[in-house]
Design a protein that fits this description.
Blueprint: E1 8-13, H1 21-35, E2 38-42, H2 47-50, E3 56-59, E4 87-88, E5 94-95, H3 98-107, E6 112-117, H4 119-132, E7 136-140, H5 156-177, E8 180-185, H6 192-200, E9 205-207, H7 215-227, E10 233-238, E11 250-252, E12 258-260, H8 263-275, E13 279-283, H9 295-314, E14 319-324, E15 327-332, H10 333-338, H11 348-355
Bound molecules: 6-O-phosphono-beta-D-fructofuranose.
6-O-phosphono-beta-D-fructofuranose is lined by residues 16, 80, 118, 142-144, 186-188, 239, 259-260, 289.
């Protein structure tokens, strides 16, 4: 008769997807198998713990072998809607459903949960663990790379690579047509993707949410480049950059949800008016998330997954795995959430960009 697993742990992905989530899942499953533990992959983030019976799949090493690490998205599904503390009900009211989550964790006999998420998801999971009395370990993922206490979160490197590749592809067409190409990239309120991709992709102008921009400065840079004999430019705009009136450019979807969107076209129009240059705008959007993870994201995801399982083995909870000084460490989840990381205006990359002559709009 097959022996029963000595422990059962839950694993869920929460918030927006990104490249590398499946590599984390694989690492957790492999490592847990070494301890002889069973891993229940919860479907659709906390959503799977709100349905009855709870929705999950038993994950075995053979389920995550081979191509899974190379796949974008998350094989478990995820959600960035439906906070269990204020869950939108069909009648339009908000209901606290946190007790149902705690009930499902108990029903499934989970010793602990590993939650893969960004700051919002980890904050909710932490609160759920507190009120529900279950144990939690967090793994940071966000293309925005804005979580505190970790130099890197899963998904960021791939998003930067995709945005950089977009610039590589825009440069020849910009040069051929003597155009200004504006590229709008994601990053929510932090400009890390824009700054990294802008430097890597040879941008002439990089606009970040952390630095209010002046169109006169941007136009002056484009005109300076022309005066030097180059009749095209590359401009990277982070989605949360404010317009000249200080407002955020947003789009509202049919279900009422709002997201950043539109600043690239706004900046493109301003540039066209101010310089007379033929201008085109490209929005990279979700292409930054749904693709095979870069090698670096796979390595990070693997190290994070292994360390998260080891933390459970050591009985260390309410911790988030993190990357610091070339190694994996763990920190209190609370500190990671509290230590939001915007672009450091005195940091190496801002200095590097300025030293390269890149206009940051100020
Ligand atoms: O936080 C990740 C992120 O991709 C942001 O960069 C972006 O603003 C947002 O999510 C988009 O959200 P959604 O996938 O819900 O459109």
């Amino acid at each position: 008769m097959a022996s029963l697993p000595s422990k059962r742990i839950g694993l869920l992905t929460s918030g927006g997807d990104c490249a590398g989530l499946n590599a984390v899942i694989r690492a957790v499953v492999y490592r847990a198998a070494k301890y002889g533990w069973q891993v229940l992959g919860i479907r659709e983030g906390t959503q799977g713990l709100l349905t009855r019976p709870p929705e999950y799949q038993v994950l075995k090493p053979e389920d995550v072998d081979g191509h899974v690490m190379r796949m974008g998205g998350t094989i478990l599904g995820t959600t960035n809607k439906g906070n269990p503390f204020a869950f939108p009900m069909a009648d339009g009211t908000l209901k606290d459903r946190s007790a149902e989550i705690a009930g499902a964790v108990k029903e499934l006999g989970l010793e602990a949960i590993i939650g893969i998420g960004g700051d919002g998801s980890l904050a909710i999971l932490r609160q759920l663990a507190e009120v529900g009395g279950f144990k939690l370990v967090g793994i940071p993922k966000t293309i925005d790379n804005d979580l505190g206490m970790t130099e890197m979160s899963v998904g960021f490197d791939t998003a930067v690579a995709v945005a950089t590749e977009a610039l590589d592809r825009l440069q020849p067409t910009a040069a051929s047509h003597e155009r200004v190409m504006v590229l709008e990239v994601m990053g929510r309120d932090a400009g890390h993707i824009a700054l990294n991709a802008g430097i890597a992709g040879g941008a002439d102008v990089i606009l970040l949410p952390e630095i209010p921009f002046s169109i006169d400065k941007v136009a002056a840079k484009i005109n300076e480049i022309r005066a030097q004999g180059r009749n095209f430019s590359l401009v990277v705009v982070s989605e949360a950059v404010k317009d000249q009136a200080g407002g955020a450019r947003q789009v509202e979807f049919a279900d009422g949800q709002k997201r950043y969107g539109g600043i690239g076209h706004y900046v493109g129009e301003l540039i066209a008016k101010a310089t007379g240059a033929e201008t085109r705008v490209t929005v990279v959007g979700h292409v930054q998330r749904g693709c095979p993870p870069s090698a670096e994201d796979r390595v990070l995801a693997s190290a994070f997954g292994v360390h998260a399982v080891d933390l459970i083995a050591e009985g260390k909870f309410d911790r988030m795995v993190a990357w610091q000084n070339r190694k994996v460490v763990d920190v209190p989840i609370e500190d990671a959430i509290a230590g939001y990381q915007a672009v450091d205006l005195d940091g190496t990359l801002v200095k590097t960009a300025r030293a390269l002559g890149i206009c940051l709009g100020d």
